[in-house]
Amino acid sequence: MTQADFPTTWRRPPQLIKTRQWRIILTISVMVYLFLAISSVEIDWQRMLIGVERGQRFVAGFLQPDFTSRWRDISAGLIESLTMTFTSTIVGIIISVPIGIGAARNLAPRWIYMICRGIIATSRALQEIIVAIFFVALFGFGAFAGFLTLAFATIGFIGKLLAEDIEDIDEAQAEAIRATGGSWLQLVNYAVQPQVMPRLIGLSLYRFDINFRESAVIGIVGAGGIGATLNTSLSRYEYDSAGAILIIIIGIVMLSEYLSGHLRRFVN
Amino acid sequence: MFWLIIVALFVFCWNMMTERTMWVFVYDAPTAAADLASRAWPPRWSYMSQLWAPLWDTINIATLGTLLGIIMAVPLAFLAASNTTPSRLILRPFALFCIVATRSINSLIWALLLVSILGPGLLAGILAIAFRSIGFIGKLLYEAIEETDINQVEAITATGASQGQILNYGIVPQVMPAFYGISVFRWDINIRESAILGLVGAGGIGAQLQASLNVLAWPQVLLIILVILATVVLSEWVSAKVRHAII
């Protein structure tokens, strides 16, 4: 019996954690966590049985959507959502461009940089829904609160990505403008703007897409739009109208995703 | 010309949108804000003792939801990627449709539907998070699969490996880092989303928020929002650390 000169079996080496002990400890702690987490979920089978029937009604409603009987509510909600999305995206971008420039380390002095980063961080940390709750409390129910919420959320998104983009620009072009003695405004206009403009347009289209999706949600807390219509139809158990609304939402999101993809390719 | 159209459209949309706005409330907003702030301050710290359990629920919703989402998204991603899909004509479009459809419905809407079907509670929240995660994880993962290096796959194929072995040894090791990164990223997003699912009855800390809002207990609302913010910041930190360690 001689030992083979080469190994006849091969085991894939572990990829993430190399030490055996840590792997065991981690596996056990994950198991314990999963056990604790799953056991804290209470499942009410009685309630589920009622739910199955409702689920069937919902699927049936989704397959046979009813666009007509609530069409006035649906179209009003849809128009509110779309106008809200458009205005808030525009206003959000107009506000977020100066903030984005201010939050770029290579363009702004230190104190402006800190302020703008602060604004961006606040806007990104607060959930849209929570912001909407506050704006509804302050400005009353309806689309105006929704408009403010979406505009506020847009600032954080565009501001952050624009600032990162400006920080990544090709310094040589900025250097060239500086060498000609250009002012700060000329620097932004001739060196920075041409480099980031395509990205900014792409981001704006992407944000339009996101804002429409969000506008379908913030209506649940009273900020207007198609979400409010959806919420009403669900609480009335009108699953066929709800199905119609969902199909419209999916359709518009798909359409805007497709269009924005095309437009972005066109711009680049 | 282009800008003129944009401006015109903006004015038109603005008029449509603000048609039914009660401007009285808007002009009133600064005083209302000051009033709200004075009533909400200071946060009611003693309420914290009632928040630990919902917070634990919220984290569970996010984690279990992410796991469930991963379990459903991984097969879909392999079906959707053009280099691993078994059939380009039927299964690929189907998988792509599932990915887009689950992504275009917000988790709050999923929760709204599931609560009316399954009843209020954690389960509806977990499923809502899971469904919403499918589209996100599926999309990023199938893009990662499509970007894999073909040479390694060919090397495995040359040894006479079966279809399953090609996946296991040729493609999976290449997408593993992306997979971990995506999962942790989604978990981080899910923590944010699960914090508000309770608003529509899907359990977690949002339920506490809803209850406090209903009785206009602003100091409690403020405390809950502070807790949510802390959790979000913490989870973002954890996910950034983990992603940094992996990639």
UniProtKB/TrEMBL annotation, chain A:
<dbReference type="GO" id="GO:0005886">
    <property type="term" value="C:plasma membrane"/>
</dbReference>
<dbReference type="InterPro" id="IPR035906">
    <property type="entry name" value="MetI-like_sf"/>
</dbReference>
<keyword id="KW-0472">Membrane</keyword>
<dbReference type="InterPro" id="IPR005769">
    <property type="entry name" value="PhnE/PtxC"/>
</dbReference>
<protein>
    <submittedName>
        <fullName>Phosphonate transport system permease protein</fullName>
    </submittedName>
</protein>
<keyword id="KW-1133">Transmembrane helix</keyword>
<dbReference type="InterPro" id="IPR000515">
    <property type="entry name" value="MetI-like"/>
</dbReference>
<comment type="similarity">
    <text>Belongs to the binding-protein-dependent transport system permease family.</text>
</comment>
<feature type="transmembrane region" description="Helical">
    <location>
        <begin position="21"/>
        <end position="41"/>
    </location>
</feature>
<feature type="domain" description="ABC transmembrane type-1">
    <location>
        <begin position="78"/>
        <end position="260"/>
    </location>
</feature>
<feature type="transmembrane region" description="Helical">
    <location>
        <begin position="86"/>
        <end position="108"/>
    </location>
</feature>
<keyword id="KW-0812">Transmembrane</keyword>
<dbReference type="GO" id="GO:0015416">
    <property type="term" value="F:ABC-type phosphonate transporter activity"/>
</dbReference>
<dbReference type="Pfam" id="PF00528">
    <property type="entry name" value="BPD_transp_1"/>
</dbReference>
<feature type="transmembrane region" description="Helical">
    <location>
        <begin position="129"/>
        <end position="158"/>
    </location>
</feature>
<keyword id="KW-0813">Transport</keyword>
<feature type="transmembrane region" description="Helical">
    <location>
        <begin position="241"/>
        <end position="259"/>
    </location>
</feature>
<keyword id="KW-1003">Cell membrane</keyword>
